[in-house]
Amino acid sequence: MTAMLSVKDLRLAFGEGAEARTVLHGVSFDIERGQAFGLVGESGSGKTTVLRCLAGQYRHWQGEVAMNGEAYRGERSPAHASRAQMVFQDPYGSLHPRHTVRTALAEPLRVQGLDRIDERIDEVLLQVGLPVAFRFRYPHQISGGQRQRVAIARALILKPPLLLLDEPTSALDVSVQAEVLNLLADLRARHGLTYLLVSHDLGVVAHLCDRLAVMQQGRIVETLSTEALCQGDAQHDYTRTLVAAAEA
């Protein structure tokens, strides 16, 4: 079976010549359809940089990427928007303060030239557990958890099979984190979604993911199942250090 996402030898550097600074050193992993895969590591390890390459925010990377069996070279196109969408870390910064929820959700539909805009907005709001009346609200009128639900709705409204999740709960209160994680797990089960989740929190990864890769200084140092991680079967010293820090 073709992987939903295949990344081979992904490399990225900033600057040129002697001033060049390499931030990704040959990152490779595969995610099967319907699987949730985590990228974990400390700040600066390169995990969010991988997401930005896959989302089209960085386009000068090298390597091979395929999404749903189709080669991807970094373009930000309507075709790519229907294959993969990103949910950002900060629910306060990812929504325009002067745009209503309806405006935020309608924009990708209009860009794609789709019809039944209000019907699609109502459908996706209900999917993420929000009343359809929320379409008339502004970001400052809803809570952080509700904003993140809107951000997830915006990512889902084009019905992409792959979601790129950049620390989607780290800016939320602990009680709200659990609600959003449970929502993501439910959406994945109901719609057969594939997730690539970036997080520094091993607990979040263990809750949501089947497999994970551990990144250190722009490299993947270990790939293992979540079950193996929870059973203490990590092989690399850095992974064991992360686990010890999470348990402290």
SSE inventory with pairings:
Blueprint: E1 5-14, E2 21-31, E3 36-40, H1 47-55, E4 62-67, E5 70-72, H2 78-81, E6 84-87, H3 101-111, H4 117-127, H5 144-156, E7 162-166, H6 174-191, E8 194-199, H7 202-208, E9 211-216, E10 219-225, H8 226-230, H9 237-247
Parallel strand pairs: 3-8, 3-9, 6-7, 7-8
Antiparallel strand pairs: 1-2, 1-4, 4-5, 9-10
Structure explained in plain terms:
The chain is α/β, with parallel strands linked by helices and about 250 residues long. It has one domain: P-loop containing nucleotide triphosphate hydrolases (Rossmann fold). The chain has helices spanning about 45-55, 80, 100-110, 115-125, 145-155, 175-190, 200-210, 225-230, 235-245; strands spanning about 5-15, 20-30, 35-40, 60-65, 70, 85, 160-165, 195-200, 210-215, 220-225. The strands form two sheets. A six-stranded mixed sheet has the order 6-7-8-3-9-10, sandwiched between helices. It has a four-stranded antiparallel sheet with strand order 2-1-4-5, with helices on one face. β9 (about 210-215) and β10 form a beta hairpin.
Kindly state the number of beta strands. 10
CATH class term:
Alpha Beta
Proportion of strand residues: 25-35%
Which residues sit in consecutive blocks of at least 5 with pLDDT less than 50?
Answer: none
Helix run count: 9
Shape: globular
- Report the mean per-residue pLDDT as an integer: 93
Order of helices and strands: EEEHEEHEHHHEHEHEEHH
Distance between the termini: 40 Å
Instruction: Please give the radius of gyration in angstroms.
Output: 18 Å
Total domain units = 1
Q: Report helical residue fraction.
A: 25-40%
- What would the CATH topology be? Rossmann fold
CATH architecture: 3-Layer(aba) Sandwich
CATH superfamily caption: P-loop containing nucleotide triphosphate hydrolases
> Strands of the biggest beta sheet: in what spatial order?
6-7-8-3-9-10
